[in-house]
Design brief:
Elements (H helix, E strand, L loop, with lengths): L2 E5 L8 H12 L3 E7 L3 H8 L3 E5 L15 H19 L3 E4 L5 H10 L4 E5 L6 H6 L5 E4 L13 E3 L13 H8 L7 E5 L6 H9 L1 H4 L4 E5 L15 E4 L6 H7 L2 E4 L3 H10 L3 E3 L10 H11 L3 E3 L7 H13 L1 H9 L6 H13 L1
Parallel strand pairs: 1-2, 1-4, 2-3, 4-5, 5-6, 6-7, 8-9, 8-11, 9-10, 11-12, 12-13
Helix pairs in contact: 3-4, 6-9
Length: 354
Amino acid sequence: MKKIVMTGGGTAGHVTPNLALLPYLKEAGFEVHYIGSYTGIEKKLVEHAGVTYYGISSGKLRRYHDWKNFTDPFRVIKGFSEANQLLKHLQPDIVFSKGGFVSVPVVMAAARQHVPAIIHESDMTPGLANKLAIPFASKVCCNFPETMKYLPAGKAMHTGSPIRKELFSGSKEAGLSFTGFNNEKPVILIMGGSIGSKFINNAVWSSLDTLLQDFQIVHLVGKGNINNDLTGKTGYQQYEFISEQLNDVFAMTDLMISRAGANSISEILALKIPNILIPLSAAASRGDQILNAESYEKQGFSTVLQEEELTGDILVKSVKDVYKRRDEIKEKMASSHLLDANTTIMNLISELCG
């Protein structure tokens, strides 16, 4: 039996593509292990998926001044030592990394142990963690064709992003039953990222009565952001997050409003849902979501609104415009030559395993 170690963490976006590959790895007969941080979001997600999980020490490499910049290098060194020992013990045939700072010592340890490592970069430009790990990797997969120019020519492969198989098996009827909605009005699904977005939430709430005249709304507000004043409002359902029923909710969705994280927009494209993207601002990030959104807008898949300019009125106007053009948008998405990332990456894994 072949053995693979997966790594990646810090945000759900550094875990979800790994989990998307799990069924394919198991079908191919791989024994799967996962290395993440001791307490990161990845631990709960991976253990819930039934995969053996190992925690290592993890630091964060910041671009800004913080006193932890003086102590975290020692955590990274400790993490490398722990990863090195784990790989010696596990003796995997290959390592697959989705990025995040915890992945850097694992990819470096793989090089030390002469184990081939594949890195996957979802965003338009590589993040700092992946930039540090790329010299130690055998191959680097990317989601956007534009990313190829930022990667070493001998290592880069445009594969697209792994998509969870279960997202395509949703039931519209089950989604309507879960939310208590009906077939009389189209459905908008609003997602503000794993922790929610006050910008998006406030814009939706300020325009809610107008939107509910023509639509039913499922609103994922993020942990701790439920608006109790709106509980029980007809045609509106809010949740902190949805897990098991998400594929059914996707199946009944006619239009999405979403952040522009690479994994989220890859799933939106794969499901061919007309959408409005509201990327995380450059003031709160390295600007990768803005680049992701611009690429999708240029290809005709999305309408982009900047959160600094977001108001309820602008949101309502954009929703009406996108819904009016929904068939045109779906046609463009259908002709996008979406890559079968799951198959391409599995073939690469098998090839590097020998």
